[in-house]
Prior knowledge:
Layout: H1 3-6, E1 26-34, H2 41-47, H3 53-62, H4 80-84, H5 97-112, E2 113-121, E3 128-132, E4 135-136
Antiparallel strand pairs: 1-2, 2-3, 3-4
Bound molecules: zinc ion (ZN).
GO biological process, one term: rRNA (guanine-N7)-methylation
Organism: Arthrobotrys conoides
Family: Belongs to the TRM112 family.
Amino acid sequence: MKLLTANFISCAVKACKSSSLSFPLHFKDVELASTSVPYNPLLLSNLLPRLDWPALVTSSKELGFTLPDTKPELPRLTATAAATGDGDMNMDNTVGEDDEKTLKMLHKVLMETEVVEGKMVCGSCGFEYGIHQTVGNFLLPSHLV
Ligand SMILES: [Zn+2]
């Protein structure tokens, strides 16, 4: 399971829906793996506006990564670079050195880091969602539905 997934999941227990403690779920006893994924700044820059940044910072910290406290403001990249096929960015798509650093960090955290085994714990009810062989099980046992 990628860390990105944690940014879109909150506890499914009904009583937790209204609790701010049910998001994000907290990683516990995690075993991480790193996979090499082609660097795609366009994808990252499109993803960035949709992320809940404070939640991502929290989740990242739990996995041992430090992200800046405030969401980086990156220039919006366009598809031009992707369309040319050579992967080079044209002049409109150049990003500064600091932005590049942030993008590389996000790439490592969001794209290349995988939780192989572990748990995600709800801060409201304490329910533990298991992660086994990279797959998170977010189904609740029948007595909690
Ligand atoms: Zn809960």
